[in-house]
Amino acid sequence: MREESRKGYADMRLRNIAGSREVIADCPYVVPEEEQERCPGTWREIFGNDNPVRIEIGMGKGRFIHTMAGEHRDFNYVGIEKYSSVLLRAIQKMQKEELPNLKFLRMDAEDVDRVFGRGEVDRIYLNFSDPWPKDRHAKRRLPSRQFLARYDRILREGGRLEFKTDNRALFDFAVEELSPAGWKAEEITYDLHGDERLMEGNVMTEYEEKFSSKGSPIYKYIIYR
Ligand code: SAM
User: Fold this and answer.
1) In a mutational test of the pocket of ligand 1, which residue from 17, 57, 114 has the highest number of ligand atoms less than 8 Å from its CB?
2) Active site includes 74?
3) CB 195 within 8 A of CB 189
4) Which of 17, 32, 70, 151 has the highest CB neighbour number within 10 Å of its CB?
5) Confidence of residue 87 (pLDDT cuts 50, 70, 90)
6) Residues near 165 by beta carbon (within 8 Å), at least 6 away in sequence
7) For 151-186, what is each residue's pLDDT tens digit?
8) How many A from CA of 81 to the centre of ligand 1?
9) First-to-last CA distance in the chain?
10) Hey, what CATH topology would domain 3-224 get?
11) For residues 97 and 89, what is the distance between their CA atoms, to the nearest angstrom?
């Protein structure tokens, strides 16, 4: 991975923002941590409607999911982020423009199948996931077979998972994981921004804008099982 790219991935969360945990604890858009274990099977009640639930894992500052929720009011969205200091940025976007169909979870994605029930999720988005370049950390990568097994439990039959990244090594790894994990690719592109059809409706993430503006190609797949 390029040095500047690696630095970019790390520095987003190094800035710890004082008081972010307290803001999150008081925030109506965040499902409180102590209530997360009661969530499976209750997302209809949480949103107060039957609309399909779509989730972004590792949402960062939340531009993608906030824009998606604003553009698609007939879907519910849940943004998952591990770090309070980063989640705070997504909360600030909601404070500027509140959306009833968007909620946040501060949690490690390792537990994603403990907050959603079997088949309760309509679509999963992974955007610019951390690359974890060392081989011994492969199972921490969000498109790894270990994570695909978790997604398999929560994604509805026929549901899709979409993954975008600027990192070729991570993308090649993700593609290689599909067959052993029992998933198939519906779409694969090595130049998303050069593909008019796949760009239709594309919502840029913070990282996507940063890397594509520097000329990096963006890789994307859409998968199912
Ligand atoms: N998706 C955003 C974008 O494209 O601009 C942010 C990308 S950033 C490189 C990756 C984000 O995923 C970080 O905010 C990081 O804290 C979060 N993340 C990484 N591993 C995670 C995990 N296991 N569970 C939840 N969030 C995670």
Assistant:
1) 57
2) no
3) yes
4) 151
5) very high
6) 127, 128, 129, 131, 171, 174, 218, 219, 220
7) 999 999 999 999 999 999 999 999 999 999 999 999
8) 6
9) 29
10) Rossmann fold (3.40.50)
11) 13
